[in-house]
Please model this.
Amino acid sequence: MTTYFAAVNETALAVFAIVVGVTMVITYFASKRVSTATDFWAAGRGLTGPQNGFAIAGDYMSAASFLGIAGLIFLFGFDGFLYSVGFLVAFLTVLFLLAERMRNSGKYTIADTLAFRLKQKPARAAAALGTLSVVAFYLIAQMVGAGVLIEGLVGIDFWLAVVLTGAFMIIYIVAGGMLATSWVQIIKAFLLMGAAVVMTVWVLAEIGWNPLDLFRDARAQSADGEAYLKPGLFLSTPLDTVSLGLGLVLGTAGLPHILMRFFTVPNAKAARGSVMWAMVLIGAFYVMTTALGFGARAILGKGGEEAAGPTGNFALPSLADELGGELFLAIIAGVAFATILAVVAGLVISASGAVAHDVWSNIVRSGRDSEREEVWVAKIAAVSIGAIAIAIAVIGGEGLNISFMVGLAFAVAASANFPALLLALTWRRFNTTGAVVGVLFGVISSVALVVISPTVWPGPDSEGGALSWYSLANPGIISIPLGFIGCFLGTMLTTEPAAAAKFDELYVRSETGLGAEVATGLTLTGGGGRRRTAAAATTTIPRL
Amino acid sequence: MTQEFAGGAEGAEQRTDIDWVAVERSPEFRELVKRKKAFVIPATLFFLAWYFGFIILAGYAPDFMGREFITDGLTVGYALALTQFVMTWVLGWMYLRKADREFDPLAERAREAALGTAGPGGPEGRFRRGEIVDEPVPGSSTSTEVPR
Model:
């Protein structure tokens, strides 16, 4: 285990305490306003486009983006930057195909869109399976990452770091619901962008303001020389590179915690505006990973490899230490901590929706429960999911490979959730069997293919895979087509006139917003917003 | 925040009074969907082609991607990667512009056709397909402002 400090770093602890303090104040304000299910899961649909854009950026950019990509570039050069490109371009899929349609057709969870025209119980069960699979892999990856990072940067034990991260996450959600979660994500996005800008400027100042010197110096400092600026050092199999690209560009459009964010804005116009804000922020950040990753290589050189660790996750903290010493390192560690908190909170609130709204309220209780009960179950679910994630992360511990877990989450999202959602919204013939078979095909194939991939079985250091004929680390190129084929086969083998009949309503609603859920006007500090907005809604379009 | 997309105070579950099949077949709705597809489908194909062109080159032509051009240190691969960022922002901005100027007014017309004339004082009620079939679909948005 890499421990960057021998003892507990008090400066870093102080920065962490500030992050926790600010987010707890927000949670306190939010807790006084959140009461209904719409408040709890959708923040009253009262966020503006720019606010939601920042929240999406905060929800999306995990420690894997902040520390992971910088580390990959530091270690492997150009291949690390391929992740940056894929993570951004993916938002065009979200913008063109899903953002506004989700806003118009859904209520709290992605299952709402499927269940709109399909049979309630099987459709919700399938969507909940897809949601919980993605969240499980992504959440455990983030929790383990949090533990490793905090242990390495602050000096407190791994298990304690995981427990604290999980505990704060649970408090945000249980007390402040989506309103607190959204504002934690917004603040985190500001912190992350600020940290990236400061480090980029600092790196450029250090190398003499010519961005091209980043590449020249990095190349000179790498044992791989010319090859450092070429693809192929990390992703050595061409088909694997393509498979990864496919998983990234379609996976984002199947991430439940990202799609859920579109339920927090009042209308489709705000939904698409928020994607544009997110694309500007996320794109600017990923451009800056050039300076963070190549800059770490140029400034730290070969000597930095030991401190960066085998995964490269500590390359950026090492760079911060080199540039600004202990205080700057503590600030960067605090930003990384805020980053993880914002992402895990977003993940758990989407999982609580799948458990409480889909499984409990609509499957177990057949929609007969009260809204009060639904919110209570959501809070119990959030605590339970958080506790399970803490337990798995502490027990499974530091041995889990974080990047493969995140890759798996994207693969499941792209193979199981994305095909079913897209086809439900656009294909009249699509039916319940298609959705169930498609989600099952997507989940099972992506998990199975990752299990038999050479990085997992027999292990990361082995020569070749356990199965000689299969060597892909990224399953997307096989599992995504399988997800679509499952949807297609299931649909063609059965007929369901009711699903086709309901298509017109879903289609008109998703494209025009006619009949879409309205905002209740919840804000973090505002007073009578709820009443004002409700009045505006009734005067704009007359009730029938 | 305007409420132009809010269809009513109740959710869709209560809107059994709209003839959805008729709305789906209305010329206003068909025009909206046609115009949207005319942008979204080519734009999606373009960005997927440009992105996968880049990814396939990165996978299968590492030497080409690693070639330095114009100046020392700048590789073809990095330059192509930067074009992906520019493409994402430009296509996103184009979509937003088109949605504001073209798709929203068309969606508003489709809603009006479904609900009767929108706005206070207008006749409330059912989908009135026959009365607005002949109206030209707007190219400009000035005549279709949403009443606030």
Remarks:
- Chain A touches chain B through 83 residues (CB under 8 Å).
- Chain A has one domain: 10-399.
- The domain at 10-399 of chain A is CATH 1.20.1730.10 (Sodium/glucose cotransporter).
